[in-house]
Design goal:
Length: 110
């Protein structure tokens, strides 16, 4: 039940976070002053926290969506399998979020 609620919350977070990304794209199109203001906001601790949450929401919603697709074809309804796939979805979201941010900061050696 908790993961189902989290799936809905991350769906809302994705919609709101997409508005933040659109704000940034519009700022790029509006010129240097608007872009500087948007970059200042998104580069602040609050902006980075929002973007980090948006990244987690993206990966959790993706991983849990794949889990739901498996259920749609009849796989993983057993209690043990459902629990394991829930842990896998959360773990995948955390790992993919951290890897994405590490890559963005050049911490993966590439």
């Amino acid at each position: 039940m908790t993961l189902s609620i989290l799936h809905r919350i991350t769906g809302v977070a994705l919609a709101l976070g997409t508005l933040l990304v659109v704000f940034w794209i519009v700022a790029v199109a509006a010129g240097p002053a608007a872009y500087d203001a948007a970059s200042a906001l998104l580069g602040s601790w609050l902006g980075r926290l929002l973007l980090f949450g948006w990244t987690f929401s993206l990966f959790y919603h993706l991983a849990n969506g794949i889990r739901h697709l498996a259920w749609d074809v009849g796989w993983g309804y057993e209690l043990g399998a459902a629990r394991a796939s829930g842990y896998l979805a959360v773990t995948a979201a955390v790992v993919l979020t951290l890897l994405s941010w590490a890559a963005g900061y050049g911490l993966l050696g590439g």
